[in-house]
Design brief:
The protein has 358 residues and is an alpha/beta fold. The protein is 39% helix and 12% strand. Helix 6 crosses helix 7 and helix 8 (173-187) packs across helix 13.
């Protein structure tokens, strides 16, 4: 089995994402990640295992006895939530997932409150956290930092798993997991995800959630992906290159209403202006036709759904919030369950939870 201790950082960094996957697995032949860094680590079988475990955790947690059982599963573990990029939902979702499993947590949410304020590097900060905690859940504006620290910690005297909760404009694998889980639950009594049409709308160029989910959807059969955005914010070529390589049907469009009529799921995103190269750059782009409101709701099929990774601005009108097809609030809660499943699996407790008597 390939391990991160078997390869230099320079050689590992040069590998493609698919080639990196075996170095990140927990056990040989198991497939479950030890370090969760990018969406390419998950195939369909692994996704369905995690969804099944998330459902099992949900069910167990319905009773007081079951909830108390879950709180003892990982009561001997500690997790550090290192969020050097602003976050509320992603932070709280991971925190709640840890609490479900009884994990003791610590957190740093502002580099100004850590020794980074004194000039310490992020790498040294994370090595310090690994001395006290058994897992590091990290969100960073720095692209590639999660991968580098996974290699560093695996080659240290105290290797602990890294869980990537958002890395630059690059990847957001746990958001993609909760998005898949939401799609699975939304269509489980309606034929599943296979054969569906999923439309992405908004800032597709800089939205890491779109990049990660687009890849995971390639694990399902005959799913068409439609990308609706202004030309300046359209999906990047590296994403469509993967779709062509995998033989996935896709369409580039600037017509949200036409796409809505034909979609089983519409995945809206906000403008990611925190990545602007110049002040006010995004505000100069006309996004008026890329918003979902009452008229778009009328065009949406009765069994179709609306999704959003949140936070939103005005790209989904509040009049949509109470429509049964609006899944974004349930989508957010789904994140807690699927992240609990991923954390439990990372520590090797998947089978114990699935087989328990609750």
């Amino acid at each position: 089995m390939s391990r991160l201790t078997d390869i230099s950082w320079e050689d590992f960094e040069r590998l493609g994402l698919e080639a990196k996957k075996p170095y990140l697995e927990r056990f040989e032949g198991d497939g479950m990640p030890y370090h969760t860094l990018f969406a390419q680590q998950f195939d369909r079988a692994l996704l369905m295992r995690l969804c099944a475990l998330a459902n099992r955790i949900r069910f167990i947690n319905k009773s007081k006895e079951g909830a108390l059982y879950l709180k003892n599963v990982l009561a001997h573990k500690r997790a550090m939530l290192y969020f050097s990029q602003p976050s509320s939902r992603t932070f709280l979702s991971h925190l709640a997932a840890c609490q479900l499993l009884g994990i003791t947590t610590g957190s740093v949410r502002d580099a100004a409150t850590s020794s980074e304020f004194k000039g310490e590097s992020r790498e040294d900060s994370i090595r310090t956290f690994s001395s006290y905690f058994d897992m590091i859940i990290m969100r960073s504006p720095e692209q590639g930092l999660a991968e580098k620290m996974a290699w560093e910690l695996s080659n240290s005297e105290r290797p602990v798993p890294i869980l990537n909760a958002g890395s630059g404009k690059d990847q957001h694998p746990t958001q993609a997991l909760l998005d898949i889980y939401t799609l699975v639950r939304s269509f489980e009594r309606k034929g599943g995800i296979d054969g569906r049409t999923v439309t992405f709308c908004g800032d597709l160029k800089r939205g890491r959630t779109v990049r990660s989910l687009s890849y995971l959807l390639t694990d399902f059969r005959d799913v068409k992906q439609v990308f609706v955005a202004p030309p300046e914010l359209q999906v990047p070529d590296d994403v469509t290159a993967i779709l062509r390589e995998k033989g996935v049907r896709y369409e580039i469009s600037d017509d949200l209403r036409a796409a809505t009529r034909a979609s089983d799921a519409v995945y809206m995103t906000r403008i990611q202006d925190e990545w602007d190269n110049a002040k006010g750059e995004s505000a100069r782009i006309d996004t008026s036709r890329f918003k979902f409101g009452a008229e778009e709701l009328e065009l949406l099929g009765p069994d179709s759904i609306i999704m959003h990774p949140l936070p939103r601005r005005d790209e989904i009108a509040t009049c949509c919030d109470h429509d049964p097809r609006a899944m974004y609030w349930r989508q957010m809660r789904n994140g807690m369950w699927i992240r609990a499943a991923l954390i439990a699996s990372t520590f090797g407790f998947e089978r114990e939870i699935m087989d328990c008597g609750y």
